[in-house]
Amino acid sequence: MSRPEGRGVESLRGIGAMSRESGLTVSALRFYDGAGVLRPARVDPDTGYRSYAPEQLAVAKLVAVLRRVGMPVAGIREVLAHRADPAHVDVLLDAHVRSLEQRLADARRALSSVTSLLSPEEPAMSATTFTVPAAALSDALRAVRFAVGADPDLPVLSGVLLEVDGSMLTLVATDRYRLALAEVTLAEPADPVRVVVPAPLLDEIATASGDVPITVDGESLTSGDVAGPLLPDAFPDYRPLLPAARDGILVDVTALRTAPAHQVRDEPDGSRIEVLALDEQGRPAAAGVGVNREFLLEAFDAGGPGQLQLELDGPLAPLVIRSPRSVSLLMPIRLDA
User: Disulfide engineering: 144 pairs with which of 164, 173, 202, 301, CB 3.0-4.6 Å?
Assistant: First the structure.
């Protein structure tokens, strides 16, 4: 914003008055001057005292609102540059809201173990046994196995969450960049179970045939001749991340691999980004969602053959892939203009 010379001094607000009327502190006004976001109309050459024009009050109030909702300086600057174009500003605000939602989801995931860390140690779990068809267990494990983590600093993510709730067995895996969930209906209801099983242990159990009995106690899991310890740490609460089921885009995986509705970009670090751009009818669209190509192809394979349902909800929201046997979420990669 320019600093007009010759404006009547009597019409200007001092920095203290501007602070009181706008809701921005004096230090914030100085900061936004230095950042080129809200420059004063006049700066006294001798004292450095800042003064603001009456029409700058509305701009300052806008900056104060954007600051309160956590918009970064670059975003505030862009909103101000396009404030005469409401449609453009709506796009910017919508993108910021999605960013806030993603950060909230990240915070919930990070804080999900706080309750268990604060709670008194629970009594040892009594042994629980349930039976699952080997083929169904193998399919469910195949649907989530690709999302198992490998970060040595997060050993709990190297396992698969195994939950039993009545007649439903749920398997969940995540490495923080993707999440996969699959469910199996049990023939008989069982007592509630929630444990984290090392992935290699489940791999071995899933090679069995027929009906597979699984016994879980507080520290270990046993199935026939196969047994091993459970992972002791709390698995992140995945439920807040799961979006409600809605209508998505039905796609044929084989066709999508070669369709012109997407493109692949090679990144400097050697990774490849898949840019999916589809409208509600599965046709090519102008804007797309970027995801890691390797992760995407693994999620397609995990979903099984035939049609999958894709839910693309903007460039900052996770890509959701649904199949009859599983749900996968892939974290988006920001696409620079």
Answer: 173
Which two structure tokens, joined as six digits, stand for 208? Answer: 């069995």
Helix (H, G, I), strand (E, B) or coil at 283: coil
How far is it, in rounded angstroms, from Cα 160 to Cα 144?
A: 8
Buried b / exposed e along 206-219 (16+ C-beta atoms within 10 A): bebeeebebebeee
Q: Which amino acid is at 108?
A: R
Q: What's the angle, vertex CA 31, arms to CA 26 and CA 33, rounded to 5? A: 95
Given a cut of 60, whether residue 283 has pLDDT beyond it is: no
Residue 116 above 60 pLDDT? no
User: Tens digit of pLDDT for each residue in 34-72?
Assistant: 888 999 999 988 888 999 999 999 999 999 999 888 888
Of 291, 58, 24, nearest in space to 179 by CA: 291
With 0-12 CB in 10 A as exposed, 13-18 as middle and 19+ as buried, what is 242?
A: middle
pTM, two decimals, is 0.57
Buried-exposed string 171-182: b where 16+ CB fall within 10 A, e elsewhere: bbbbbeebbbbb
Q: What mean pLDDT value characterizes the chain?
A: 80
Give the integer Cα–Cα distance in Å for 331 and 31: 34
The DSSP code for 150 is -
Q: Burial code of 288-327, b = ≥16 C-beta within 10 A, e = fewer?
A: bbbbbbebbebbbebbbeeebbbbbeebbbbbbbbbebbb
Task: Please give the structure tokens belonging to residue 335.
Answer: 């696409």
Q: Tens of pLDDT along 219-272?
A: 899 998 899 999 988 898 888 888 776 666 666 666 665 554 456 666 555 555
Backbone angles phi, psi at 93, to 5 degrees: -70, -40
